[in-house]
Design goal:
This protein is of the alpha/beta class. The protein has nine helices and 14 strands. A hairpin with a 4-residue loop joins strand 1 and strand 2. Helix 1 packs across helix 2, helix 1 packs across helix 4 and helix 5 (103-120) packs across helix 9 (278-294).
């Protein structure tokens, strides 16, 4: 039992070192900050060495802590790999599957798959983490990520699961009072519902160009931008997952389709060591089945 307790203290130590924060590490592990602090203190007492330099703002490893972390990190990686190998010998998903993603696409098309598999496989725990920031899958222990567009990390395995198309659209009410733009440059004459970027990119023949748009309705939330367009506040530029149903029922009208950029690929990515994971494999297969049955762009 003492060995198990010591292992728990080592896991606590490595998480604090990884996040450089007791608060973030405690949140990651689902324990209290005081519990984590006691675990690290117990480990330091056992070793007779101070492992962290603590201040009110930051937590840094000492020289001894750095050496100890390197050894512990590699040892825990070996333990995780051993666990992964055991799971991979099974033909039934089980254990923990951590997935990082963001946006309404993941809400509408990935979350339902997770719910279905959680119900189907009671020994499988699926953790969905929504984060607009791109996280390091290996460093933050994620099994799978959903990403859009060009991928930067060549060490990850990527599988294309769908594509995303953007539309510029406005409501019938808006176009009752404004001319339909025939060229992107005419957007300067329109009110636009603006997200994080007021430079909208277009393509004409083989050339790309930008148009700076203006408007008095702004938001960093896609659903809020959709509401703005539906209520006639201006033209919105949004992915199909937000607007397609409204385009089909006539609430929104799409413009400038011939000038829009190419479709953006949507990827399922995972670390190479997860390549044979039954959890990852089944999850991706179910995502693709769901998209083929329900997704259009």
């Amino acid at each position: 039992m003492e060995t198990i307790k010591n292992l728990g203290n080592i896991v606590a130590f490595t998480n604090v070192a990884r996040f450089e924060s007791f608060s973030l590490a405690a949140k990651e592990m689902g324990v209290s900050k005081s519990h984590l602090s006691k675990s690290v203190a117990s480990l330091e007492n056992e070793l007779g060495q101070k492992l962290f330099q603590r201040s009110t703002r930051i937590v840094k490893l000492t020289a001894e802590g750095e050496k100890f972390y390197e050894t512990c990190h590699e040892a825990l990686k070996s333990v995780a790999l051993a666990k992964e190998n055991i799971l991979n010998t099974s033909d039934t998903p089980q254990g923990l599957l951590r997935v990082t993603m963001a946006g309404v696409f993941a809400e509408e098309y990935i979350a339902p798959v997770a719910a279905k598999l959680a119900k189907l496989y009671p020994n499988l725990t699926i953790e969905l983490s929504f984060n607009e920031k791109l996280v390091n899958l290996v460093k933050e222990n994620f099994d799978l990520g959903i990403r859009f567009g060009k991928l930067e990390d060549s060490t990850l395995i990527a599988r294309k699961i769908a594509s995303r198309k953007e539309y510029i659209c406005g409501s019938k009410e808006y176009f009752e009072n404004h001319e339909i733009p025939k060229h992107p440059k005419e957007l300067k004459l329109h009110q636009c519902v603006i997200g994080n970027n007021d430079l909208w990119m277009f393509r004409e023949r083989s050339e790309q160009f930008s148009v700076k748009v203006k408007g008095n309705y702004k938001s960093n939330n896609g659903r809020a931008l959709l509401k703005g367009a539906l209520h006639g506040a201006g033209l919105a530029r949004l992915p199909s997952v937000y607007v397609l149903d409204h385009l089909k029922n006539g609430e929104l009208i799409s413009v400038l389709d011939n000038y829009m950029l190419e479709e953006v690929p949507i990827w399922a990515i995972y670390p190479s060591k997860k390549n044979q994971s039954i959890n990852v494999r089944v999850f991706i297969e179910e995502i693709i089945k769901n998209l083929e049955a329900n997704y259009s762009f």
